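From the pipeline queue, job 12 of 40. The input is one protein chain; the requested action is below.

Action: predict structure.
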Amino acid sequence: MMTAKEFSKYLDRDGARCYHCGTTEGLVPQHRVGRGMGGSKLLNMPSNVITFCSIQNGLLESSGPAADEARAMGWKLQRWEADYLLVRPVYDRASNSWFFLNDSYGRTVA
């Protein structure tokens, strides 16, 4: 489980808003490559976690069209793509920008 202190680093990096809708309410960590039933902590690196609201996070996991959009936007990746986290940008809809994430809790414009 991610600590509040650790999650605050993601909030700082991501502007404390949801990548999908831009809300600042109900934010949760979204793993780009799923950890699978509480699986590997190796996938907790900063390049694999983005900030989503709980509503959109739930849709990513339960809706085919939402999951398809998430893959196109870099918000959700297949397990085999784990080695490409640093070179697969994510789209931040609120800023209308693509970003590369790094493992130092930073992001740069793609």
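Job complete. Helices lie at 4-13, 54-62, 64-72.
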